[in-house]
């Protein structure tokens, strides 16, 4: 886990020989491939892969190894990304009132379960300040009431200043402006309290109760300009019955939300996700 | 299971003392209450119950016991229904092409798992004839092409003639006319191949694939005039991943469909469901 | 939820008329039965019930109502228990090193999800002190090394002194002495990190990995003198694959442990459990 | 699906460069790798892979391609196996009394969901004859009563004569002799009606009821000389409650058994399983 290494994510048009070429490049420089997850999408004619490479025995500098891959990557018309291990992803957590998702993220971070460094917890309410500060994290209050646009500009500045790589919306009850979604595309993860695409919009647990569904759920997804429609990373469900009122669904749903968000973040920070239009390829662990 | 008995289903406005009154009526005539499932809906202010009563020691005729309950039922402004045990519900199964749901129903019926008597299998294609006849059931072909209205009139006549109490749509690919839904209200069960209310309409597995959901599902529900919106009886889900194409979802979904339909029918024929507007109260076993 | 009321738990030999008698007693004094969960065990010939009664309109003192029930209870040869609502159960949490179960309990308590008052967190290591104290709870260190018996005597004294009603073993890595199990029978809840009865004993995740199971799980159970064999309250499972090493199972298992323990405690403190020999009757919510 | 191709299964001691070497061999002959599932077991220092290769554009005969791989395979000290697509695995189904697992296998085979050709259904009772024959399959009765050894010799002869590649024990209630297990090692799949390793031995549902577990399950595994201890291919679980008696567990368990067996067979016949001592590596689809 703490061994020096690289993660390579790659997507390109499908064609014969990709695995051989990529694996051969790694092997030719004495990289040790400990995981090679791939997916050839026969419908979309695309190829996706995630490689985990131990670099202890590399015959070149890691920097050189990465640069040298470019020739191959370009010949495959690929999009690719290398990450050096070990690393911690600089992450801001945005919250409003409820703190269960925040607590889950803080707790798993402290446990070392996720390679994340919390830069700050940002709230448009003061409610979560104590939870954040008690756990030793910086809390920033940003007023949004009647100044949503300015509020988001402030958040943006903070994110840039703190070199934040990932923004987690941990039950942040504000719709992001389009310019924000674009600037941080693929780097904002939300937890939605329903089994999307069911119950889009407000009060999904109330909707779920009225519809009489037998499962409730939560959805962790990338945020795009289109509300609740971004690529899904993870979902969790729980069986419910007629006697569960809306308040029970909220209670039971919290566990789904925490579980789905925690896994979703984990997959993202371990580079186990690759965006593919409206979908996300996810190689779970 | 084969013991003589009664099932009583009851719903009424909630008020103190209902359980006492109903249970006392049963006890006063030496009925033995082996199951008393109840639900006081604190939001809707309604009371729902299902009682299973062994009648071996009744001090009156069963007929008389049932009639005598009327006084109490009316005083509670209740809707109620008695069913004598053992019984078999006369059931017609409507199909089109795919036979997996049909097979499941036939197989569980033969096994004696569900107290059902299949009156006939009715198809608007000939495809399922062999599956039905091979298992020893009557198959009726009803032409629908260009004569949907006449087709449904024919089906209606058959159902009436055969004294059918329950109509199961086992992947029957026709939308029922409103008059049919009304005439058989609360007696038509459908299996929908998605986790409703997600993916209403055509080709739900294709929709699910495009949306990149992490669970697919199936929904067993009562049919109402509003498409795919009737009260849900049972749902089943299964986890899927990015590599599952639409054909895989169809394959995996079949198991959800069979399971949800089988449980839904079971709950209905054992009088474990009570309709409550857009929802169904279900006391599972 | 905060309404004045009573919970009545009752078990007795099965016989006709119990529901009528119990419900009639409640109704005769204008108690309002909002939940009546019952189970007639046809194999064991026993009857179990949990009643939730709103007492706002009682025509007698609650004390008197409770006392008056005795005549009926004795005539049914029942064991019963009344609890007044609202209430909080005085609860001690015993821990060793890992804090994920402790955190879950503390967090749900703070959220008000469980009517629990934490009297103290007791550790045979210092590891969890900061988690407890940071959340504002009293932490007591009890040395066990080479003085297990004395350690447990100390714990017992603390529990008695603090009038503790429930002892939660939140990954407490010590086997309780028999005298302790007896003294606190039915009041000690443990979380076991396997899907019991599989993988009894040490290192269940390692065992699970070696056996190549496709699900891991956790079990919340009452503690009895017989190790890992007490009545099960709740279990949770999660699907795993061959690539999950023992460390992954530990990680994934933590979520099962937290979920199962939280539900188990909830059921217990809401009096939703009734012991029946080696089993627990559980009326979930 | 019907495209000409090869499946290659391979396991060998782990070492750097395996993926590159194997994929390069395929690419060098213009094979098109459409799936490359691999697992580097960091604990056991072993490498496992399953490749699916489209062979339409191969620059050599398939026979030659397979033979040529030997040089590489031996250099890796690998065990490997090629299968030509499309294919159907010749499969015998052994049964005793209950037919739900048999029905599931026959039905999925007829549907074309599994590339299986049923050579015969073999029963040590006559009970399943009608189910088999009605579906158009050959049924063979083998007397076992008081002649177990001879019975198994007869079965063996039939299997050999019919060139059977896979033996499915679909609730076959006889313990296989050691010589039989050895002769057909890795080619006999059993469905066990419990969530192994819990409830080994007789009457697992009764055991599960007595223990009061909250989930029941079924386990599909390879048969070895050690009873119920062979490598697990697939498991399925279902939540149960205190009111489910042993008969209910049997009923609910049947669904688990059918699901786990069907998936287990599917994984085997698609060469998605690789044996690794007491465990099976399974690449699910």
TrEMBL record, chains A, B, C, D:
Q: Where is the ACT domain?
A: 7-86
The record ties this protein, via InterPro entries, to: ACT-like_dom_sf (IPR045865), ACT_dom (IPR002912), Formyl_transf_N (IPR002376), Formyl_transf_N_sf (IPR036477), PurU (IPR004810), PurU_ACT (IPR044074)
Any GO molecular function = formyltetrahydrofolate deformylase activity
In terms of domain of life, where is this protein from? Bacteria
KW Cytoplasm (keyword) present: no
Q: Which keywords does this Swiss-Prot/TrEMBL entry list?
A: Hydrolase, One-carbon metabolism, Purine biosynthesis
Q: What is its EC number?
A: 3.5.1.10
Q: Which SUPFAM superfamilies match?
A: ACT-like (SSF55021), Formyltransferase (SSF53328)
Q: What is its pathway? A: Purine metabolism; IMP biosynthesis via de novo pathway; formate from 10-formyl-5,6,7,8-tetrahydrofolate: step 1/1
Active site annotation, chain numbering: 228
Q: Which Pfam families match?
A: ACT (PF01842), Formyl_trans_N (PF00551)
Point out the coiled-coil segments of this chain.
none
* PROSITE patterns xrefs: ACT
One GO BP annotation here?
A: one-carbon metabolic process
Question: According to its UniProt record, which reaction does this protein catalyse?
Answer: (6R)-10-formyltetrahydrofolate + H2O = (6S)-5,6,7,8-tetrahydrofolate + formate + H(+)
Q: Which PANTHER family match?
A: FORMYLTETRAHYDROFOLATE DEFORMYLASE (PTHR42706), FORMYLTETRAHYDROFOLATE DEFORMYLASE 2, MITOCHONDRIAL (PTHR42706:SF1)
What function does the entry list? Catalyzes the hydrolysis of 10-formyltetrahydrofolate (formyl-FH4) to formate and tetrahydrofolate (FH4).
User: According to its UniProt record, which protein family does this protein belong to?
Assistant: Belongs to the PurU family.
Name the record gives this protein:
Formyltetrahydrofolate deformylase
Organism, per UniProt?
Luteolibacter ambystomatis
């Amino acid at each position: 886990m703490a061994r020096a290494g690289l993660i390579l994510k790659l997507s390109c048009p499908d064609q014969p020989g990709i695995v051989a070429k990529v694996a051969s490049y790694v092997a030719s420089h004495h990289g040790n491939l400990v995981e090679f997850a791939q997916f050839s999408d026969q419908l979309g004619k695309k190829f996706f892969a995630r490689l985990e490479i131990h670099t202890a025995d590399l015959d070149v500098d890691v920097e050189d190894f990465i640069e040298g891959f470019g020739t191959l990557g370009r010949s495959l018309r690929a999009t690719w990304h290398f990450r050096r291990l070990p690393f911690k992803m600089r992450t801001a957590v945005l919250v409003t009132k409820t703190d269960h998702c925040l607590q889950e993220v803080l707790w798993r971070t402290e446990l070392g379960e996720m390679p994340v460094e919390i830069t700050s917890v940002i709230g448009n309410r003061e409610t979560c300040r104590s939870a954040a500060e008690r756990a030793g994290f910086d809390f920033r209050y940003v007023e949004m009431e009647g100044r949503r646009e300015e509020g988001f500009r402030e958040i943006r500045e903070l994110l840039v200043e703190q070199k934040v790589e990932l923004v987690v919306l941990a039950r942040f009850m504000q719709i992001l402006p389009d310019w924000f979604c674009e600037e941080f595309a693929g780097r904002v993860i939300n937890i939605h309290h329903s089994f999307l695409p069911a119950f889009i919009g407000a009060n999904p647990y109330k909707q779920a109760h009225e519809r009489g569904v037998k499962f409730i759920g939560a959805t962790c997804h990338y945020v795009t300009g289109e509300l609740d429609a971004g690529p899904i990373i993870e979902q969790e469900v729980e069986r419910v019955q007629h006697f569960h009122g809306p308040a029970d669904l909220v209670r039971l749903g919290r566990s789904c939300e925490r579980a789905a968000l925690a896994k979703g973040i984990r997959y993202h920070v371990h580079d186990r996700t690759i965006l593919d239009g409206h979908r996300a390829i996810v190689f779970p662990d």
